[in-house]
Write a structure and sequence with these properties.
Jelly Rolls; 3 domains; 13-stranded mixed sheet; four-stranded antiparallel sheet; globular
Length: 306
């Protein structure tokens, strides 16, 4: 059978079954899948070259050990203080309005962000989780009923339509001191390579006190790095790198930045087996619920190397 040319205004696959050899198929209403190589041909020179789609572009970057972003996020995540008494976040009783007994950092007005609320915070009747908020001053703002769940691959957004909190009762929250996940992503088995690395950028802001306020990086349930602790402000990078094997890593020392280090060992060595599928998470935590902290998990990059 000879080749036939055709022209089409739009190519819209209706079948969701991938073809056996090469062709297009429907993934969802916004996504078309491709089986086989997609080739473009220059009409003037007749030179052919492969097209880099979103799926294989990441693989091509990994093949040359270029950084591949696993997440990029500029959204602030905040744990507001709240001891159930006189300190921290107090809901006013009107449509998610709240005040703080002290600013997260003196003079800091957080324009938008997501704050973590424990269950039934301030009598709201809410489930525990991340909720969108806006602040009008360093100690006053409004929480909305727009939430965020940090499942792998999801990023928070400023909602297009804000939903008011039903807030029949005001009151002080009692904030958690547990580790709370901000973001997470899936990492395929073997994707790092035996000498590959993960690099995370983290910014956090808080008052300088003796109480610990931390950003942490986990792989599944294993702690890989924890930040400085009592420092009020920091903007730094964390590196977790395989040491010639998929099951042995050397990481940026906990409580230290890349530029500074002390004698001794503190979280430098880990033994996660990256030959298996893993989930990488950025976590926020406070040691005392009389303290507040803001963290931006700026980015997580994968730089693969065999």
């Amino acid at each position: 059978m000879g080749k036939k040319n055709f022209q089409a205004g739009q190519l819209i696959p209706t079948s969701s079954t991938p073809p056996g050899n090469a062709g297009f198929y429907r993934i969802d209403k916004n996504t078309i899948g491709v089986v086989g190589n997609l080739v473009q041909k220059n009409a003037n020179t007749n030179v052919e070259s492969n097209v880099s789609t979103g799926a294989n572009l990441a693989a091509e970057l990994a093949a040359i050990s270029a950084p591949v972003p696993l997440w990029v996020c500029g959204m602030p995540f905040v744990l507001f203080a709240g001891d159930g008494g006189s300190n921290g976040m107090l809901f006013t009783g009107t449509a998610g309005g709240f005040t703080l007994s002290a600013a997260v950092l003196t003079g800091l007005v957080i324009p938008v962000g997501y704050c973590y609320l424990p269950a039934n915070a301030g009598g709201l009747g809410n489930a525990a989780g991340w909720f969108y908020f806006e602040m009008s001053s360093s100690t006053a703002g409004t929480v909305y009923n727009n939430g965020f769940t940090p499942t792998p691959g999801e990023l928070p957004v400023v909602p297009a339509a804000k939903t008011a909190f039903a807030n029949p009762a005001g009151g002080r929250i009692t904030q958690t001191t547990a580790d709370i996940t901000m973001l997470s992503c899936s990492l395929a088995a073997g994707a790092m390579g035996k000498n590959g690395l993960l690099k995370a950028g983290i910014k956090y802001l808080a008052q300088a006190t003796a109480s610990l306020k931390r950003a942490r990086i986990y792989v599944d349930t294993t702690l890989m790095h924890t930040s400085f602790g009592t420092s009020s402000c920091s903007d730094y990078e964390v590196i977790i790198q395989n040491t010639g094997a998929l099951n042995a890593q050397m990481a940026t020392r906990s409580h230290w930045a890349l530029a500074g280090i002390s004698n001794g060992i503190n979280g430098d060595l880990t033994s996660i087996d990256f030959a298996a599928n893993r989930v990488v998470s950025a976590v926020i935590t406070i040691a005392a619920n009389t303290e507040s902290v803001l963290i931006i998990p700026r980015y997580l990059n994968l730089q693969a190397k065999a």
